[in-house]
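Researcher: Please predict.
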Amino acid sequence: MPDPNLLSESSGDAPIFDQESWQLTPEQVQLTTQARELGQSKFAGRAELWDREAIFPTENYHDLDAAGFLGLCIPKSEGGIGADLKTYALVAAEIGRYCGATALTFNMHISSTLWSGDLTNDLDLTDAERESHHQHRALHYDRILNQGKIYSQPFSEGNAAAAGKMPFGTSARRMDGGWLINGKKVFASLSGHAHYYGVLATEVKAGASVRDTLYLAVPADAEGVSVVGDWDPLGMRGTVSRTLIFEDVFIPQEAQLMPPGIYHQAAVRWPHMFTTLTPTYLGIMQGAFDFMVKYLRGEVPEAPPIKRRMHGVKQVAVAQMRIMLEQSKSLWFQTMNEAQVDPSKESRLRAYATQYTVMENANEMCQLAIRTCGGHSMLKSLPLERLYRDSRCGALMLPWTAEICLDRLGRETLYEKGETDD
């Protein structure tokens, strides 16, 4: 548990989710307060630099490590904070208000611990698999907790593998004592900055399918690992998501983050594991709304101290955006409440709806905030322009892009499993 003495008593920004209205636990209040304090005092002032230069927010990760947040979702039995998915999401949303790139890359690190932690504990493993997994994950957790190591989670390959429609092209051939990895990952966040890449690869065997996916931690400094290409995107520039190449990279058996075949079981039975991107964009939505209100009240230090709140057209716009924010928060919070193994069909469909809603509404919120604030809000010296560019990236992110969510919502609403029109 982070040191409560690190918490500031300054008023600052109000919480995205207050304790009484949303019935947060004392632990959730403490952790979100600490994240909000870090965001206000550290991350907000640095965000423009990471964005302008497209460089990784290393200093922010030093702060996250010092606060104990690198171990946020490591089980308490292993020395971590032991946060569940909902608690992680609440923390990450607060971070996303102030630096989207930090929140988004934090998701990649945290997912490595969340998936290998309580999520795997909920799945069907043999006693031998469970014992072996606990031994392996203890090595990864020790690196994080005691050495400050950062893990990433490169998914995309430029094909349909990350969406679960085909096996990953990155391959893992079983060797004596481990595996030999070959392949390529694109849009690989933290490339060149994570210490370990949590790689999803297909085990080389006859008739291999998506069920034969392995989840392996590849050391960034291993022989055969390289980072290539430039990184100059529209938004989320601080994620530094360059291309990773693996050429005959040998990793030992203890590099497993999940036992063989368990990733596929998790993807089917624990679908909420793929909602971990949404907190970043909910935070961006809140950050854009917060800025707009302060701007219209003449309270933004970098902007002219002119009040614009008396205009009726702006009041109506603020009201509409407040409704959008409340709708998004409520749907998102309900989905996080429902996160569990083997959710109902309705819960799974609500997760798709939540992913779509948050990703699209974040960008719409930023668009409307710029229009309502007016010309000065487009300046790069103010955060709204960066929030707008960052917000547009969410709908594109695998494994649940906005298009995939729409496709699954329509199809799975109209068809039960196994139904056809033949």
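Model: The first strand starts at residue 151 and ends at 152.
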